[in-house]
Amino acid sequence: MKFAIILAFLHFCDVLANQCAPRSYGYSSVVCVCNASYCDNFPPNTKPQDSSYFVYTTTEGGLRLLRQSYHFHAYERNSTDTIITIDSSKRHQTIIGWGGAFTDSTGININSLSEPAAATLLRAYYSDNGLQYNMGRVPIGGTDFSTHGYSYNDGEEDPKLLRFNLTAEDFSYKIPLIKQAQALVKGELKLLASAWTAPKWMKRNGMYTGPDFLKDEMYQAWANYFVKFLRAYATEKINFWGLTTGNEPSTGLIPSKINSVGWLPGSMGTFIAENLGPTIRKSEFASIKLLTIDDQLFMFPKMIEMIFKNEKAKDYIDGFGLHYYWNWLPRTWLKETHDQYPEKFILATESCEGVGIDQPHVKLGDWKRAENYASDIIKDLNNWVTGWIDWNMALDLTGGPTYIDNNVDAPIIVNSTAGEFYKQPMYYALAHFSKFLPEGSQRISFTQTTNDILVTSFIRPDGAVVVTILNPNLHDAPIRIRPVDNKHAEVRANIPTKSIVTIVY
To answer: What is the average per-residue pLDDT within 174-197?
Structure first.
């Protein structure tokens, strides 16, 4: 019944694109079903006229990025409203972008669909009618979301890397999809490369997993391995914007099934200063952005301080990669990091829900996971993060494949047997940011009179102001937005219970 009411309501609203085909799987909200012939989409991001503003709404009840247009006018005062005061003269970090990871599992699941459905799925992320992603994370070799463990130089010891080769996974699951994404993106597709494991012969324990470290004499071979990868992809006409020093060095310090290379801060500083930094900067990839950490919030800023005791390492690093999974820790650690190293950026490089054994890995239609995404992004943005890269862009109904049974959730779940894929509420949570905050958008200051809603505010390159609000409460939240510059009359909106709302003026 409630979905019939929603569809009737949509008739009266400013909707210019295909609507969600909702389906319930018994969780708190719905998925939107897509196939070879139909998928919901959104109109390209536009700036409202000076006399009007747009309100985009996604709710637990089933609205999906519903756009409504309003004209500015004076509103009656209401003491119960939350007042959000926007000061666009006070500006902070600039957005680099938004994206997802081109894992083997992503490629396997997209390839399991018919060509039309697969193309539709990729457009849902990278086209103007989708999330308008402009970034992608690319694993250097295998990850836990592969069908087996592998590197690009397996076998006997080979420090000169004479046997280095890309694998079938690159040519089946990564390179073709990256090229399709490049064709969809207006401008540059910013690709970030991250390595999970070194070849076994480079490591002390001779295994893909930890706890373990590189052999000291293999530091330079490992740096050369990165350059070999960049050259191999350049041969395929794929170039990289960024490179990390390695995925989750903390994972390599503990017993874990995830392929890894462990690093302590002193040895990481040495590797950057003496091997990776000079090797990259003397190569044809000298302009690539180098990121370190690529790990959890608990490593900010103390691990960075210890790495940067090596001043040469500090000079080579452009930014820091942040992961999602310890995000209950204080975000003030990010602000401390920014304050200590204001010339270096912070980028969220991996995020997902459904981690652990105490919950279903895939929850089709779960709203709480969408709230978790929106909350994380808002808190990150308000603490100097410059963008957000999701983990697997497409998984199957089990949250895989993953050869170590490390199943998780994803914004899009593929049901290849039915020839369908399902856009989760998490997908639409991402849309409220990636769709409206393109590269070059700049965070601006705001104040709010109550703290029961989460807010962030930006000004875009086209001059539009964007205010995104998460209302996790079981009651509506009437708000008024007051621009300090008095360029407009107040914006008035009712933020529904359990909703994410983006206002553009």
So the answer is: 98
Q: Which residues are catalytic?
A: 248, 350
Single out the residue of 371, 436, 421 nearest to residue 44, CA to CA: 436
Report cis status (omega within 30 of 0) of the bond before 211.
yes
- Give me the chain's average pLDDT, please: 95
Q: Are 309 and 273 in contact (CB under 8 A)?
A: no
Under DSSP, the state recorded for 30 is -
- Three-state DSSP class for 298? helix
Cβ pair 365, 428 in contact under 8 A: no
Query: What distance in Å separates the CA atoms of residue 49 and residue 59, rounded to the nearest whole number?
Result: 26
Burial (CB < 10 A; 0-12, 13-18, 19+), residue 162, is exposed
- Is 396:389 a contact under the CB 8 Å cutoff? no
Q: Name the one residue in this structure whose structure tokens are 């990839």.
A: 285
Q: Which residues of 420-449 are buried (b: 16+ CB within 10 A; e: fewer)?
A: bbbbbbbbbbbbbbbbbbbbebebbebebe
Q: What is the pLDDT of residues 136-153, one digit of tens each?
A: 999 999 999 999 999 999
* Amino acid type, 241: W
pLDDT at residue number 7: 37
pLDDT tens, 198-218? 999 999 999 999 999 999 999
Residue 199: partners with Cβ closer than 8 Å, 6 or more residues away: 151, 152, 153, 154, 158, 225
Contact between 218 and 160 (Cβ < 8 Å): no
Instruction: Residue 20: name the closest of 359, 431, 343 by CA.
Output: 431
The DSSP H or E segment spanning 101 is strand 97-101
**What residues form DSSP beta bridges with 470?**
454, 500
Show the tokens assigned to 31.
Answer: 């998925």
